[in-house]
């Protein structure tokens, strides 16, 4: 076997495992006590930053409350330690409990209110820490700090500083393993989808609130662990350790290290802990420097240092170790394309005083292509959004098959509605295969725990994801691009990728929103062929399109919208010969329309000859 093939047989966790063992061995073989202390502090900071990375870097929610959760974990452990409950495992469990409690209590209102609320709620939480500690000064020591914390024990054995350092590195390594398994699973891709676009996430059946809440609550866990480990380091806790400066330094470490990366948390923590900022000369300027680091990091190092390392790694991979391609898919490419009828009955929608849709009715039969055309602003996208559940109905009803479609977007998606977007929406940092597989996220359940522990239920879902992505990529003709970075593909390929992401969910209704715009002639032909195959296999396709020639060649039935009303409906031949369509939609003056109809000429894009 060649070296290149051998490289891909080595499990991807080998390198981090070797690094973790090396770090854990450092205190085992013996290092100076000040180096031990630095190592513990790096681990503690890396833990806190890793939590922020999950909520900010992966799920896209700025939550600044890690410092407060850290304080919660520290004071609970410190209180236990000062009252003789020194068992480290018990303290860690208590700290995780408190972290989750704080995560839940602040996460629910913060996320429910939306927009910047979580950032604000979590920020105020940090400002509240000194007051809360003062309020409970009998337990926390208030502004004097909490002293008298007994050294931690493990199964009754009191840990000396060297053993404690080993314990801290083991806890950190285990947590980073948990996080790695989570973000490298289908849940990690779903978090990235959410970060890229909540609208996209809900169109794939993902509950935006639940997913963001999960990221925030899980992200609180390592901050709680870090608090516990910190409380047992100096056996003393002072409120000044948990203030605004810490919150900013966590953010700076996350941005600099790379927020969309597990290892970025370690890199960021090392930079901040070992850099000159921790020296006493720099302490008074630390806040200013952290602020500058945030600005510079945000602008120059968009993906942080871990992002740069990843880029270099990918270059080496592409140049020297190209990933072997999967075997061609041998099964039925159109498996599961079973559409059901869509029935839109008397739907109206106003935005303020604007009638975007007035009493619109249409049906789309299974095994047919139904096109929706109309001038800009006529209400096409609004109608698609109504079907997907993004807007409430002012009047009317929308049914899919036998049931009324939910007005909650992720529920409508789970009922079988899949769509593409006018501008392809694809998260950065994932491959074509991962982007396509994200479309199956809610069609097969595998819990967070099963992903973290790589349980059989997770492995089954993963195997099925891989199989299905090979199927749809072969169907749309992108099988060779499975391992390419999705976001950097040309527009035409990204559009096909969106179609495959919609198809992998085995939709009962496929909505294609201006899927041909920006494509060259060859790409349009390939796309048309694909849409026909989906229709012929029994799919229900609704096509919103400006390319009139494509619509005429593809559609079984065409609806023309103008100013929010159905202007005409019929077969392509009927629509092509409809004088009002020519005048309203194609902008032809009435006398010319008569001549044009007699000459029989309409060209692509709705221009008349
Ligand atoms: N969320 C919204 N709030 C207010 N007005 C809206 C909203 N969405 C759409 N509209 C308005 O409703 C009308 C229909 O818009 P819509 O985007 O559905 O048209 P369209 O036919 O899809 O146009 P295009 O072909 O340019 O995409 C427009 O006047 C638009 O400004």
Give me a quick take on this structure.
The protein is of the alpha/beta class and 609 residues long. The protein has 27 helices and twelve strands. The N and C termini lie far apart (63 Å).
Q: How would you describe the overall organization of this protein?
A:
With 609 residues, the protein is α/β, with parallel strands linked by helices. Helix content is 57%, strand content 11%. The protein has 27 helices and twelve strands. The protein has helices at residues 3-7, 14-29, 33-58, 66-82, 88-113, 117-135, 137-140, 161-183, 186-196, 198-203, 208-234, 244-257, 262-274, 280-283, 286-300, 304-320, 380-388, 409-414, 432-437, 448-452, 456-476, 491-503, 521-536, 548-554, 572-576, 579-584, 590-599, and strands at residues 153-154, 157-158, 342-351, 354-364, 368-373, 395-400, 403-404, 417-419, 509-513, 540-544, 557-562, 565-570. The strands form three sheets. It has a six-stranded mixed β-sheet, with helices on both faces. It has a four-stranded antiparallel β-sheet with strand order 4-3-6-7, covered by helices on one side. The longest helix is centred in the middle third of the chain and has 27 residues, at 208-234. It binds adenosine-5'-triphosphate (ATP). The site of adenosine-5'-triphosphate has 11 residues, from strand 4 and helix 17. It is found in: Cell membrane. InterPro entries: AAA+_ATPase, ABC_AA/LPS_Transport, ABC_transp_permease, ABC_transporter-like_ATP-bd, LivM-like, P-loop_NTPase.
């Amino acid at each position: 076997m060649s070296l290149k093939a051998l490289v891909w047989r080595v499990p991807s966790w080998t390198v981090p495992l070797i690094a973790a063992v090396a770090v854990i061995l450092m205190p085992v073989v013996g290092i100076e006590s000040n180096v031990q202390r630095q190592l513990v502090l790096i681990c503690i900071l890396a833990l806190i930053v890793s939590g922020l990375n999950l909520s900010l870097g992966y799920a896209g929610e700025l939550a600044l409350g890690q410092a407060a959760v850290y304080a919660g974990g520290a004071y609970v452990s410190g209180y236990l330690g000062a009252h003789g409950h020194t068992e480290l495992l018990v303290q860690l469990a208590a700290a995780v409990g408190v972290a989750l409690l704080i995560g839940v209590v602040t996460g629910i209102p913060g996320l429910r209110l939306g927009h910047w609320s979580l950032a604000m709620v979590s920020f105020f939480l940090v400002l509240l820490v000194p007051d809360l500690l003062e309020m409970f000064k009998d337990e926390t020591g208030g502004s004097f700090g909490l002293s008298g914390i007994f050294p931690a024990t493990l199964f009754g054995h009191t840990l000396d500083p060297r053993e404690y350092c080993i314990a801290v590195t083991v806890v950190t390594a285990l947590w980073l393993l948990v996080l790695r398994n989570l973000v490298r699973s289908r849940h990690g891709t779903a978090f990235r989808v959410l970060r890229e676009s909540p609208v996209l996430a809900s169109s794939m059946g993902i509950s935006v609130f639940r997913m963001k809440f999960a990221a925030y609550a899980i992200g609180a866990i390592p901050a709680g662990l870090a608090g516990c480990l910190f409380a047992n380091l100096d056996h003393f806790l002072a409120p000044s350790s948990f203030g605004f400066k810490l919150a900013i330094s966590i953010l700076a470490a996350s941005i600099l290290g790379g927020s969309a990366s597990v290892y970025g948390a370690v890199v960021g923590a090392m930079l901040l802990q070992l850099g000159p900022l921790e020296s006493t000369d720099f302490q008074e300027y630390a806040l200013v420097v952290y602020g500058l680091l945030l600005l510079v990091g945000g602008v120059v190092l968009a993906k942080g240092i871990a992002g740069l390392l990843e880029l270099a790694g990918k270059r080496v991979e592409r140049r020297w170790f190209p990933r072997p391609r999967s075997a061609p898919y041998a099964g039925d490419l159109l498996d599961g394309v079973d559409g059901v009828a869509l029935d839109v009955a008397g739907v109206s929608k106003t935005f303020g005083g604007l009638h975007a849709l007035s009493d619109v009715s249409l049906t789309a039969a299974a095994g047919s292509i139904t096109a929706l055309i109309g001038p800009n602003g006529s209400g096409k996208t609004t109608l698609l959004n109504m079907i997907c559940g993004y807007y409430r109905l002012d009047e009317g009803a929308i049914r899919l098959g036998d049931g009324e479609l939910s007005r909650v977007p992720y529920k409508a998606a789970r009922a079988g509605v899949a769509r593409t977007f006018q501008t392809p929406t694809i998260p950065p940092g994932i491959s074509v295969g991962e982007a396509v597989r994200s479309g199956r996220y809610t069609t097969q359940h595998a819990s967070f725990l099963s992903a973290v522990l790589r349980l059989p239920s997770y492995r089954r879902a993963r195997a099925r994801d891989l199989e299905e992505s090979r199927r749809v990529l072969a169907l749309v003709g992108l099988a060779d691009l499975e391992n390419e970075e999705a976001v950097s593909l040309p527009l035409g390929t990204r559009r096909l990728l969106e179609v495959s992401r919609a198809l992998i969910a085995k939709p009962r209704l496929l909505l294609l929103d201006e899927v041909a715009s920006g494509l060259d002639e060859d790409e349009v032909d390939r796309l048309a062929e694909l849409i026909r195959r989906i229709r012929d296999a029994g799919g229900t396709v609704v096509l919103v399109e400006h390319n009139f020639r494509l619509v005429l060649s593809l559609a079984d039935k065409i609806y023309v919208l103008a100013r929010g009303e159905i202007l005409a409906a019929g077969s392509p031949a009927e629509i092509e010969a409809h004088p009002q369509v020519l005048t309203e939609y194609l902008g032809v003056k009435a006398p010319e329309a008569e001549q044009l109809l007699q000459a029989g000429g309409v060209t692509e894009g709705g221009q008349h000859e």
